[in-house]
Design goal:
With about 600 residues, the protein is of the alpha/beta class. The chain has three domains: about 230 residues, Glutamine Phosphoribosylpyrophosphate, subunit 1, domain 1 (4-Layer Sandwich); about 210 residues, 3-Layer(aba) Sandwich (Rossmann fold); about 140 residues, Rossmann fold, CATH 3.40.50.10490. About 35% of the residues lie in helices and about 25% in strands. The chain contains 20 helices and 26 strands. An eight-stranded antiparallel beta sheet has the order 3-2-4-1-10-9-11-14, covered by helices on one side. The structure holds 2-deoxy-2-amino glucitol-6-phosphate. The site of 2-deoxy-2-amino glucitol-6-phosphate (AGP) has 15 residues, from helix 10.
Length: about 600
Amino acid sequence: MCGIVGYVGPRQAAALLMEGLKRLEYRGYDSSGIAVLNGQGLVVVKQSGKLSALEQQLTGRTPTGTVGIGHTRWATHGPPTTTNAHPHTDQSGKIAVIHNGIVENASAIRRVLEQRGHVMVSDTDTEVLAHLIGECYRGSLEEAVAEALREVDGAYGIAVISEDEPDVLVAARKGSPLLLGVGEGELFVASDASAILAHTRSVVYLDDGEMVVLTRSGYHVRDLAATRIEKPINQIEWDLATVERGGYAHFMLKEIFEQPDTVRDTLRGHLLEDEGSSRVSGLNLADDEIKQFNRIVITACGTSWHSALIGEYMLEELARIPVDVEYASEFRYRNPVVDERTLVIGISQSGETADTLAAIREAKRRGARTLGVVNVVGSTIAREVDGGIYLHAGPEVGVASTKAFTSQVIALALITLRFGRLRNLSILQGRQIIQALKALPEQIQDILDRAHQVEALAERYWRSNNALYLGRGVNFPVALEGALKLKEISYIHAEGYPAAEMKHGPIALIDENMPVMFIAPKDAVHGKIVSNMEEVRARGGQVIAIASDGDDLINRLAASTFTIPETLDLLTPILTIIPLQLFSYYVAVRRGCNVDQPRNLAKSVTVE
Ligand code: AGP
């Protein structure tokens, strides 16, 4: 998620912009920049890397001026280079733009502008937007911005300044947060309040389709058709730390609640509804190349290894390709049978996990084609694989992985659709999967709206010292992931098992002190898991169930039940994991654990 800050007032803009960008560092970024109007013209300074690199660039040449914009970029289109950093300027070099979001029709606009002689130097959709605004400029910056945005599809939060209007800053939002800060004789814009809280607590939240025009004498809010809009001024009561978490008590909770949006963002632009397939151009794989693979290896660590197991069920069921899932730490030291007909997929949220990186390098050394399922754009794994798909889930700050897991499963479903439709998957089956994928965000929201029920469940079990998670089929990996979530943030010893495996030993652990979490949606193995549930009950075990809405049988068998909406069997993990994420969160909070930074853990394990 990029960071935006802008200023119009009597003070020097550059220092205020840099201070605001520092407040936005927690959001994650890989490059930054500022633009200031210094009375003679527009000065743009930008740099890849951390803000300290930008500060170095500014040393001795900080632009003076009291109107400016600043940006921290989390790369989505194009690697995190200085050229791709914001602000971007138009053809004239007089207009500077910073942007958070995705211009979905950027390629089409770029082609038209280049035919008109525009020359763009970066890979970004933002530079296209800057050139479009310049193309629309005929003496009014706000009108030029409005006209350009009327042509844009996609999501944006932008701020724009021009040396031809040195006392004006125009900002607009559609789908990416943006607010106006009203100070004493000075005005700010920002992507979130943390950037400006040091200067004012009076803010105006923009809504989608709205623009705000800041000048030295004040501001006005309007829509793209120039209709003025009256907006209330809100007072921010939160402290800075709470503001950075978007009002949530912890980053982990914020990221759990982001999942309706992050699932949408992972799906965005990839679904081919008519063909019942998916378009994932980043795979860099032609149809005939996909057809020649006779085996897939998916390698990863931790939570990413759990999503890999779900990918195995999907690909074998729908694409009929043999799949092996390997712990990266094991794969790299074995003597794996891998050749040019093997596709090796590395899954990594950070894109920096040492074992996964080493496993991919080993696979390449043996001639395999490699793909990455990665969240951090431009990360080492993303740069070393032959192709891949980005999650677009935004930075995951909480050490316990939540939104990355669901987005990984979505990414694997997109790969499965593409591969399956080249083999045995019918167009009707593909369309059915697409409809089910599109329904997931609202179904996740339905679960999140009942988070208080999960909190009540946690209140009953937070004192436990052990727990068992059981699932069958594609929900066996969910049992593993749910157990990992609980143990890594609440320090309760929890194990995940295939439900049928109970009989082969673990059932000896069952007594009234052992909560047993069954992941039991209405799917092909529902009847089997009911039998396992009865075996646990017969031994006095405390059964907790994640079941489908309206499942009275499970509701009667379990001491506690949380229900979820129904979806296709293979997609149930996207829904069954949500209450388990919440359960582990509430138990950990109740136990007074450090939820965002659990003891002994790091967000990215870049060592062996
Ligand atoms: C999961 O909650 C942990 N944070 C950890 O298991 C993590 O999934 C694992 O270290 C892999 O990280 P990666 O996805 O960044 O490669």
